[in-house]
Design goal:
The protein is α/β, with parallel strands linked by helices. The chain has helices at about 40-60, 60-80, 80-90, 95-115, 155-165, 180-190, 205-215, 230-240, 265-275, 295-310, 325-340, 375, 395-400, 415-425, 465, and strands at about 5, 10, 20-25, 30-35, 125, 130-140, 140-145, 170-175, 200, 220-225, 245-250, 255, 285-290, 345-350, 365, 385-390, 405, 410, 430-435, 450, 455, 470-475. It folds into two domains: about 5-250 and about 450-475, Aldehyde Dehydrogenase, Chain A, domain 1; about 255-435, Aldehyde Dehydrogenase, Chain A, domain 2 (3-Layer(aba) Sandwich), CATH 3.40.309. Helix content is about 40%, strand content about 20%. The relative contact order is 0.14. Bound molecules: 2-aminohexanedioic acid (UN1).
Length: about 475
Amino acid sequence: MSEQNYIGGEWTGADGGATYEKASPWRPSETVGAFAASTEADVDAAVTAAAAAFPAWAKLPLAARGGYLTAAAAALERRSDEIATDMSREMGKPLRESRGETLRAAQILRYAASEAFRPVGEHFEQSLTGRQVSTRRRPLGVVGLITPWNFPIAIPVWKLAPALVYGNTVVLKLAYEAPQTGLHVAEAFAEAGLPAGVLNVLTGRGSTAGAALVRDPRVRAISFTGSVPTGHGVRDEATRAGKRVQLELGGHNPLIVTADADLARAAEAAYAGAFWSAGQKCTATRRIYVQDGAYDAFREAFLTRIERGRVGDPLDAETEVGPIVNQSQFDEVVQAIDRGRDEGGEVTAGGERAHEEALLLPPTVFEGVADDAFLSCEEVFGPVTSLYRFGDLDEALARANAVPFGLSASIFTSSLADATRFQNEAQAGLLHVNSQTAGAEIHVPFGGIKQSGFGPHEQGRSAIEFYTEVVTIYVDP
Ligand code: UN1
């Protein structure tokens, strides 16, 4: 397994040879590997390679480009056990989810390849003559992708797959905390025989390599997934330079449970939504609003499910909740729990470190948190969620919508009227009726509204909007 950058079809160390070590979240005294600490010069080399590869790549038929994606999907599938294990080792996602995510990445590649057979323009008539006027989507050129550690294969792939199939060439800066998983993607494309320079993959810090990518004038567009402050910085810098920008940022996702809901299913979905991947998903369930008549029964079902849950080593196939990715994220979650207590919240489950060495926090549930308290408003990237009571749906929707985020929202109900109101009024880009807030199908748009996103949504038919530009063509004989 290579731990170098992949630039212009070659595996190469960072300029100057600098590397960084990634610590294990399960055994923080151990490292999982040393990776290239890329500099501005490495980004320059990658963009140069991508720019050189663009003309020939853009000329290939869509279906020929798609063929490379299909071959890379097969290469990922062949090594999916190794990838899932590396993912769990380096960033702590439990193996059952790492496996699913790896296979999801292969599916995303196959889906994007199938887009080669869909329309890339529309046909009209000129109004006076009836002659042809049409639109046609064309690639942008070199695109820069900056991806997070929490979905270290799905997110890189869901950005690069449409970018490539529509004819762009790519420079991908992998997350500092999850380099190894993403390098497997580069290997899969190398195995698939992708022409040199079409996909370039770098590791290193966002503040050096990521920033250099955002600044480089040859990069036409930047797609970024990560935190709100970093994302806003990326947007401001990139738009100043005239680039197209797409951001996927945080969430503060509510789950509403009405009194007539199937409470067993709701408790299961609350557990999965709040605690799988230790709550380190921007789609995780942060607030659970339960209607008065069902509150006690839901609370009991939820706490019982937490007791049954398996917390521990991410490489154990039974584990549901693994560690936090690194020490500083762990400290932030612990501080947020302390602040939740200080502001009058009561810890009903969890709340204390669950392992001497590993960065492990158990599922943590708060009650009695005020609507304007930190935990009700700010995203805490860990296994922490709060329970609230509500009277009627007006109240639940108003409180669910009272945050600047708008990524995902769920309702559990058996009332068609309540489900319909939720679909019309919940302020989020992803709405779930009787399913958990996290999770994403590969063939439909993914993205938030309000402060959770910027620019066209990712995935599905939306992806074409970001990765192509429309030209209008008048043809007279
Ligand atoms: C999912 O819920 O499966 O970073 C996907 C995140 C999101 C992806 C969530 N951009 O958590």
